[in-house]
Every structure is written in C-alpha cells, then in structure tokens.
Design brief:
The chain has eleven helices and four strands; from the N terminus they run E-E-H-H-H-E-H-H-H-E-H-H-H-H-H. By secondary structure, it is mainly alpha-helical. The longest helix has 29 residues.
C-alpha cells in the first residue's frame, strides 16, 4: 500500500471549472471535533436525565432514565450530525470549533443525500460496534472482540488513504476540509472603482448566482490567480450575456461588490438565495 503524501493540500474544481486550493482536515482534528460533539450529546442527555429525575416520582425515575439514554442517544447520534451538516455551514458544533467543514469532492453543492449517507455510515463504522462491545462485556467475549476489531478497522481507515477518508466519506463522495473563516473582505470592496464607465448590473444579472457562488468568487479573487480569474470571468459573462469590460479582474471585482450588496440587502428583508439553483 502506497504511503499517503505528507501534504494535505488539494485542488477542488467547481462545476464551472474553477480550481480552488483547500487543505484536508487531519485525523487528529477530525477526532477532536467528534469528541466535542459526543461530549455535547452526553451533556444534553445528562441535563435531560437530571430534569426527569427531579420531576418524576421515585418509582418511575429509573425507567425514565433508561428511556432517555436509549432513545435520546439514538435520536441525537442519528439526527444531530445530519441536521448541522445539512445547514449552510456544513459543520457540527465540534467541527465549527475546530474550524472544519464538509464539502463535496466533485466541487458541487453538498447535497442532503450525501450528508445522510456519510452519517448513517457512522452507525456501521462506530456506534453499533461500540454498543455491541458494551453489551458483550462479561457475557459474549467473541462478539466483543469482533466488535472491537470492526471498530479498529474503520478507525484506521483514514490513516491508510491519501485523502484521510473514513467509510462515510467514501460512500458519500465528501471531504472534510479546514475552514478558516475570513473577516469581511473590505479589501475586495476597496478595489472597486466607481467610474462612469464601470460595469453596471441589473437585478436579473444579480439573480443568476447566490451566496454559495459569492463565497467561491471571493476565494478566487483572494487567490488572485490569473487563469482562475479569466475562467470565472468568462463563465459569468457567458451567463449574463455581457461583452463589456475586457479587464477580467475589474469585471469580477465589480460583480462581486454588486452581488454582495444585493444578497446582504436580501437578508435584511428576510430573503436568502442559497445558490444559483435556489429559485424560491
């Protein structure tokens, strides 16, 4: 088996043909995020248990505790990850604290189906074997050792492939990447020059793209790669049917500023256009 490369830097190519440089999350960072999420679940269950015991009569308290931990842990572990990773940030609380997020490996939009698939696989990879080990302690040593081996197999999987993928990532076609949140790009807005011949964009022009594409455009402008800028400018001009402003960088600067103002104004009015596919 070939050794994984030392670097975790990768190139993510969007459906528009734009190359974005990303860094994959390390195994330790992913483990830290998972530990935070699991600890948060335990805290939630502990608080529910405390509340139930405080309100219940002595005879029924034990039954309530068992129900809370059996059903509560099942509900949390199955829907907590899916709910958070299906959101705009594509990250659980643990991933946000460690500055990670989930992305589609094909560069497209992260779909709900992919999120569900990668998180249901966690049941097979980790949760069910761990529960089997707990129930097998002192009763069925063979089942316990088998569950332990199963866990170790999947835990070691990210160490044995170049992209640090666990089973859920392989099935869902996802990466977990570092996601350092940048401050508002004032420097990008400062590049826009308000002149008489500056490009103007209609409401129809700005309705073509949404917040997802705005973030990708900002990443391209920050990288300042000439080939990427040319490719993106050509794509956007084609979508808008524009032939003015031959300078690609100035054209994209102006479009970025106009689109950002449009989307931020929409948020103030309660409207949110997630991406170019969002027609609501």
């Amino acid at each position: 088996m070939a050794r994984p490369p030392r670097t975790l830097d990768r190139a993510l190519v969007t459906p528009e043909g734009v190359r974005l440089d990303i860094r994959l999350a390390s195994v330790s960072a992913r483990a830290g995020a998972l530990l935070i999420d699991l600890l948060l679940m335990v805290v939630i269950l502990a608080l529910l248990t405390w509340g139930a015991v405080s309100l219940a009569q002595t005879g029924t308290a034990q039954n309530l505790v068992q129900i809370i931990w059996m059903l509560g842990f099942f509900t949390l572990r199955n829907f907590y990850f899916i709910a958070f990773e299906s959101g705009a940030r594509a990250a659980t609380i643990g991933k946000r604290l460690v500055k990670l997020r989930v992305v589609a490996r094909d560069g497209g939009r992260l779909t709900t189906g992919a999120v569900v698939a990668r998180n249901l696989m966690r049941e097979i990879e980790l949760m069910l074997p761990l529960l089997t080990m707990l129930y097998a302690i002192g009763t069925d040593n063979a089942a316990g050792w088998f569950a332990l081996g199963w866990c170790l197999l999947f835990v070691a999987l990210p160490l044995c492939n170049r992209d640090r993928l666990r089973g859920g990532d392989i099935v869902a076609g996802t990466w977990v990447v570092e996601h350092e949140r940048h401050k508002i790009g004032i420097d990008l807005l400062d590049r826009v020059t308000e002149t008489d011949d500056a490009p103007r964009f209609s409401a129809e022009d700005l309705a073509v793209y949404g917040a997802f594409e705005l973030q990708k455009l900002e990443a391209v402008l920050r990288r300042n790669d000439e080939k990427a800028i040319e490719a993106v400018a050509t794509t956007i001009r084609g979508k808008l049917g524009r032939t003015d402003w031959g300078d690609d960088r100035l054209f994209l600067d102006a479009y970025y500023a106009a689109l950002r103002v449009e989307l931020e104004g929409g948020l103030l009015m309660g409207r949110r256009k997630i991406d170019k596919f969002d027609t609501t």
